């Protein structure tokens, strides 16, 4: 548990929480929404640990007023949510679905009425299935369809959304969805998945232009980062660390900041056309940083198809996901970004940081989660230390407001500040919710 009061944060520091559409909205067939790759994936036998789907999830689509009241009670200054592309453009291209935008219109207005800044993510992995059928992110055309969707969404919401985030964790979507097949759309391409990286980044750049034509609000991207810990002292081990750092951290950062693709990523850039890198390098107002844990890396065994081997890190407490709880890694990561990119680096907001534990109500219906309180305390101290080190960090968003449908893990992992009974949809704020509420009030 925390051992003393947290240090103060700069004036104007943004306190927020994050969610994503498919993980909480439900209402899979409501008001003209089309199918996404996650609908298809979740309904495929054997893909989801508990056999569940996001058809209902937290039923946020029908209960958003209750959830906005929870945000207001928590006292956060911002709420990061994602907009479901298939709810707005059901086939991924062509006609816009006004009823889908109506939902986000109501949500944004309700947030503003409660003094909460809307922070909207345009793509959190739920690609419309018809676009996947036409090639998905392996096809360059998807980047242009993404820009059209961004334009349509900003035309409706651009006067009120306070920060736009184009993509969420393009590395994870590429690696788990297209490289290893454990996320939708379930492809196993390994390094042949690079076109997915490039076309996501191209879509980002095109969407930045579309957003800036519609709104003066700042624009960001949310990348997943993991500091690399090389386990071993051989040249091969160090080379493995360099390769993994290039793939996980630099592949989706270097080109955004005008440096092109890193040579050490060892990817086939044959899909890159003239001027693509200029489009991708459109100036960012904010870099979103999603952090969960560092990664242990060493040289692979002979015959491995990968230039590195991932190794569990020892000596740390573990979450229910078996991820190491390493607040020092967040300070390390923020410092690495600051040193590596220098003046090219825009202000940072930590757009996701959180932990899964097996939370359950006690006999009185209360949910105590001291491990999550300790996690948040440690990671906020790491952010404050990074600020003291000279890193320009202007916000911190907890993942997540609600226990939700956790992708391939289904309902088996709980990240929320608020416990959700998925049978009754009863929301119960956990002790971490109260702790964070009191922390924000004190600041």
Can you summarize this structure?
Helices cover 37% and strands 14% of the residues. It has helices at 21-24, 37-42, 60-74, 85-88, 98-113, 129-133, 141-157, 170-179, 194-214, 235-250, 276-280, 327-341, 370-388, 431-442, and strands at 14-18, 78-82, 117-123, 163-168, 219-225, 228-230, 286-291, 295-298, 309-311, 348-352, 393-399, 418-420, 427-429. The strands form three sheets. An eight-stranded parallel beta barrel has the order 1-2-3-4-5-7-10-11, surrounded by five helices.
SSE topology:
Layout lengths: L13 E5 L2 H4 L12 H6 L17 H15 L3 E5 L2 H4 L9 H16 L3 E7 L5 H5 L7 H17 L5 E6 L1 H10 L14 H21 L4 E7 L2 E3 L4 H16 L25 H5 L5 E6 L3 E4 L10 E3 L15 H15 L6 E5 L17 H19 L4 E7 L18 E3 L6 E3 L1 H12 L1
Parallel strand pairs: 1-2, 1-11, 2-3, 3-4, 4-5, 5-7, 6-8, 7-10, 10-11
Antiparallel strand pairs: 8-9, 12-13
Could you describe the 3D structure shown?
By secondary structure, the chain is α/β, with parallel strands linked by helices. The chain has one domain (14-442): Alpha-Beta Barrel (TIM Barrel), CATH 3.20.20.80. It is 37% helix and 14% strand. The protein is built from 14 helices and 13 strands. The chain has helices at residues 21-24, 37-42, 60-74, 85-88, 98-113, 129-133, 141-157, 170-179, 194-214, 235-250, 276-280, 327-341, 370-388, 431-442; strands at 14-18, 78-82, 117-123, 163-168, 219-225, 228-230, 286-291, 295-298, 309-311, 348-352, 393-399, 418-420, 427-429. The strands form three sheets. Strands 1-2-3-4-5-7-10-11 form an eight-stranded parallel beta barrel, surrounded by five helices. Strands 6-8-9 form a three-stranded mixed β-sheet. A hairpin with a 6-residue loop joins strand 12 and strand 13 (427-429). Helix 8 packs antiparallel against helix 9 (194-214). The longest helix is centred in the middle third of the chain and has 21 residues, at 194-214. The protein is globular. The two termini are 20 Å apart. The model has no long low-confidence stretch (mean pLDDT 97).
């Amino acid at each position: 548990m925390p051992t003393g009061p947290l240090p103060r944060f700069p004036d104007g520091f943004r306190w927020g929480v994050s969610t994503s559409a498919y993980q909480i909205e439900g209402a899979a067939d409501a008001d003209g929404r089309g199918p996404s790759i996650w609908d298809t994936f979740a309904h495929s036998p054997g893909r989801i640990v508990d056999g569940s789907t996001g058809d209902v999830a937290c039923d946020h689509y029908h209960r958003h007023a209750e959830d906005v009241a929870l945000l207001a009670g928590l006292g956060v200054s911002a709420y990061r949510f994602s907009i479901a592309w298939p709810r707005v453009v059901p086939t991924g291209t062509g006609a816009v679905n006004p009823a889908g935008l109506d939902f986000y219109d109501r949500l944004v207005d309700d947030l503003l009425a409660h003094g909460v800044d809307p922070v909207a993510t345009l793509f959190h992995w739920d690609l419309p299935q018809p676009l996947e059928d036409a090639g998905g992110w392996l096809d360059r055309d998807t980047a242009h369809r993404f820009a059209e969707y961004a334009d349509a969404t900003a035309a409706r919401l651009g006067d009120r959304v306070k920060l736009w985030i184009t993509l969420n964790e393009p590395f994870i979507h590429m690696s788990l969805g297209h490289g290893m097949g454990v996320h939708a759309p379930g492809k196993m391409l390994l390094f042949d998945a690079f076109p997915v990286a490039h076309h996501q980044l191209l879509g980002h750049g095109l969407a930045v232009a579309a957003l800036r034509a519609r709104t003066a609000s700042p624009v960001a991207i949310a990348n997943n980062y993991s500091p690399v810990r090389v386990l071993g002292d051989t040249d091969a081990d160090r080379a493995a660390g360099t390769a993994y750092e290039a793939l996980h951290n630099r592949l989706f950062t270097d080109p955004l900041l005008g440096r092109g693709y890193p040579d050490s990523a060892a990817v086939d850039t044959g899909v890159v056309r003239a001027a693509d890198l200029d489009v991708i390098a459109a100036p960012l107002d904010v870099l979103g940083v999603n952090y969960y844990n560092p990664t242990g890396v060493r040289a692979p065994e002979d015959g491995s198809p990968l230039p590195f081997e991932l190794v569990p890190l020892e000596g740390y407490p573990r979450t229910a996901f078996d991820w190491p709880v390493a607040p020092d890694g967040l300070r390390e990561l923020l410092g690495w970004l600051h040193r590596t990119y220098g003046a090219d680096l825009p202000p940072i907001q930590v757009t996701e940081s959180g932990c899964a534990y097996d939370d359950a109500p006690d006999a009185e219906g209360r949910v105590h989660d001291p491990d999550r309180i300790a996690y948040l305390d440690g990671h906020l101290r790491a952010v404050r230390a990074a600020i003291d080190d000279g890193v320009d960090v202007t916000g911190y968003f907890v993942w997540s407001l609600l226990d939700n449908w956790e992708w391939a893990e289904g309902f088996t992992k709980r990240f929320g500040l608020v416990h959700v009974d998925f049978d009754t949809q009863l929301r119960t704020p956990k002790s971490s919710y109260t702790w964070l509420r009191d922390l924000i009030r004190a600041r």
